[in-house]
Queue: 3 jobs
Job 1
Amino acid sequence: MSCAANSQLIAEYRLTDSDCALVQSAIDAVLGESAGVSQTDFLRHAHRYLPMLPMPVLDLLAAFRDQEIAPAVLISGFPVPDEEIGATPLHWRDGRTGERQEIYSLLLAASLGQVFAWATLQDGRLVQDVVPIRGQQQAQTGHGTIELAWHTEDGFHRYRCDYLCLFAMRNNDHIPTNLACVDHLSLSPRVVDTLLGERFLIRPDTEHLKAENALARRAMERLQDDPVPSAVLFGAPERPYLRIDPIYMSPLPGDAEAAESLTEITRELESCLQPVSLEPGDLLVLDNYRCVHGRAPFTARYDGTDRWLKKVIVTRDLRKSRDVRGAVDDRVLN
Ligand SMILES: O=C(O)CCC(=O)C(=O)O
Ligand SMILES: [Fe+2]
């Protein structure tokens, strides 16, 4: 095992009582002023509410974004009253609860960049419910219960997120999210050099391909039929970023060196994987250029007590995806 054991994977902060009071009044302000408006409309005014958030949280997220002080941040301590949030939904389409937790996640996410969504995932919702769905046990998605293989979020797409936020509503069985960071790998210069080449194909995951929105689904089908070659490592060669999703990935046909290097980095990441069990009130923010994440297998009960996360994705530059968005201020990518 060659993982750099001492490197910090997660920078942590726990909200104090006075932090919580500030956050709750920011949420009250959102609910008061933006009553009845969509989350898209509320986000247009996020700048009004961000200054109301606790400074240590904003400082930590700014240092995470601008100085890359850690590949992940865990902010804990936001209240999740079990009786208020109700049962874990049996399907993401079921009635939404957890409005305060959603606003909290959206505000912190908005401090990092611009929140967006995919038309092919959960009807383009900005906050997604990650819950097990009966009948989908074998799915390689957030709705399955088999091991969710580690991956770069939406690694197949050029407009994948910079950051991924996972907020825990419920996790009674302490089922871990698994994380590994690219900084902690030891790869030979030859392997790094190969991984820096656009010699790999990543295809969309099954969830994007089964969307009901036909227009958006066709765009994903095109990427399925004709993926654009991408590099596994990019950015500064001595401290590279990462784009990888082995389950949906292959080297270019006939490229044996690319195949070997992919096997090598996959093995390295595997050996660096660390479990993090998110507890209610935890918000885990992942740098999608620096870490991969997955989830351990579990057994679902489908009785309202299953594991339940809320997920938000963030880009540093929404404008770059204008070609797949209907309007300038549209946050949903097709
Ligand atoms: O459930 C988790 O911990 C991770 C889920 C995940 O990777 C996702 O929804 O993209
Ligand atoms: Fe994921």
Job 2
Amino acid sequence: MTSQTGPFIQSAAPDGFTNLALGQPSPRLLPMELFAGAAAERLHPGADPLVLQYGTRTGEMGFRQALADFVSQGHGIDIGSEQLMAAGSISLSLNMMCDLFGRRRGLVISEDPTYFLARNIFESSGMDVVGVPVDHEGMIIDELERIIASGIRPDFVYTIPSFHNPTSVTLSNARRERLVALALRYDFMVVADEPYNLLYFGNRAPAPLATLDDGRERVISVSSFSKILGPGLRAGWIQAAPSLIERIADHGVISSGGALNPVITHIVGALLENGSLATHIAALRNTFQARKDALVTALDRDLPTLKFHDPAGGYFLWIKLPEGIPASRLLTHARRRDISFMPGSSCALSAELDDHIRLSFAFYEEAELTAAAAVLTAVIGDWERNQTNY
Ligand SMILES: Cc1ncc(COP(=O)(O)O)c(C=O)c1O
């Protein structure tokens, strides 16, 4: 049984309760042995003590080079270290994007639904958020264009272009091109939040959106090691044109203290250099695909009327409930049977999405997911039979 409790963690997962809202790797997938080995290799009494000193603004050159190889090989692209910098987690990078690019108009346009905690980050920086709907090809760019043409001009568009949270869809190539063209035409930035690209189930990872920027200086991709190594590292990277990297590295927080998390970055650098992070991610892909398959198979068998997109990567299933079932009320009944999920309304900016639920397949083992699907089926079945009493 997968469980996590204790003093270190943000979200507990007690024994006997299946919380399908948890978008984080399960404890078994957190590679303590690997990380401890890298830490011992890099930090020991004879190691250079300057590792503990304030670091360079964009991250130590050895790390950036290893990161460039990792990103290039992982995505099948050719990225140089001058297009990359060490960063904090995505959450922190988004906060910096607000500081650096969000001051002119105080407005961000985002997919609706979106990552359920992103809005809070933007609003904490005093920005307003306007939503654009999503379909099977990602953000609907016609809608974005309509909003912008109506006079609503953002500082930046925030997008999760690959294996979107919560819908799991990937922005089509044609729409990617149109988004960057619109950014140029209407003078806004595009901030792409890309934590899941390397967790693909097909042949290769979708390229980071910043790869498409091609010197236009409009697109910034922010990524992290949270979903592929450990969320507790709170470390990641930013990819953008070298001029933008310089601009980001001029942020006051970096001027005062250098790149974020240099010690953690140094340890992760060992895992990049010796290839063990890439090997770990390959194993994660297999595990997540097996978990996703188990959940999809069980739902297809037990609830064939449910509608959802079969994810090609990432952590989530986004499911439309049968007609007339409000997710927020269904959740109350699910909790009584010791399962939980995220109601669509939690991911919504302004759209009415209480007819959707988000299920994570990242946290539980296959058998647990199959069992949870059976309980969910029973909860939905009870609702359909007894709805007047509910
Ligand atoms: C789309 C998206 N962005 C950002 C995050 C948070 O990333 P980090 O841990 O790097 O701040 C998550 C975590 O669920 C996510 O799904």
Job 3
Amino acid sequence: MEISFLRKLQNAAAIWSVFFDKPAGLRFQPGDYAELALAGAGPHGDKRWMSLASAPQEPEIQFTFKVSDRPSAYKKALLGLQPGDKGMISPPMGSFNLPRDAITKLLFIAGGIGITPYRSMLKSIQLNGDHRDVVLIYVANPAEFIFGDILEAAHVPIIQTSESIDFNWLKKRVADIAERVCYFAGPQPFCEKLYAQAQAAGLPNAQLRLDYFEGYNEL
Ligand SMILES: Cc1cc2nc3c(=O)[nH]c(=O)nc-3n(C[C@H](O)[C@H](O)[C@H](O)COP(=O)(O)OP(=O)(O)OC[C@H]3O[C@@H](n4cnc5c(N)ncnc54)[C@H](O)[C@@H]3O)c2cc1C
């Protein structure tokens, strides 16, 4: 599906958001991701999987990404987009979504840029006027905590840290963690470590949701 670039916004020194118009037929769930293709963004490929950071109820599509000191041609192409430039978006997909029932207690764990799907979920909860029991753990580099306005408006308990965390750290801060569905989003090593520790601690797979971002090794 073709989408048109609207504008970009700098969230932190190395973090940017890009906004596109939303085609009428585009449907997605908060937490979904899609493949965004940009013409001429080689040589390692002109498309990447990106979480939809916007909520389905919002009028635009938002993607938020981090740019390293040596950005890929793809990231350079994202940053160089001009209003009216076209991209192609695949059908959104994923299973990193909110439970149908609003009573399940949730624990969102974000590593760095892994905050993107939670922006969509928390904004969607807020716009729906739903009441869900959510705790957010947000681990990021000191100057890279983003979406402060959205997170504040969500009115959920948030623990932000730049420490390296493990499952014991989580258990100390979230006493009822065993009663929560736990979501892990962010760099692959960050997510896989915590996911494995949660399994080893006895949390059943049905209670765990994983959304690791390949292409990021660290926060
Ligand atoms: C479900 C999902 C959701 C995601 N959501 C987001 C999101 O919301 N925001 C976001 O920023 N990212 C997201 N990602 C990650 C995204 O798809 C990219 O992988 C990431 O942004 C890195 O892209 P890049 O262009 O900067 O780096 P890339 O060019 O993809 O490089 C990533 C790494 O691979 C190495 N590499 C690249 N090409 C080669 C090659 N040919 N040979 C050897 N090594 C190579 C690079 O050196 C680098 O270490 C998501 C990924 C998934 C799977």
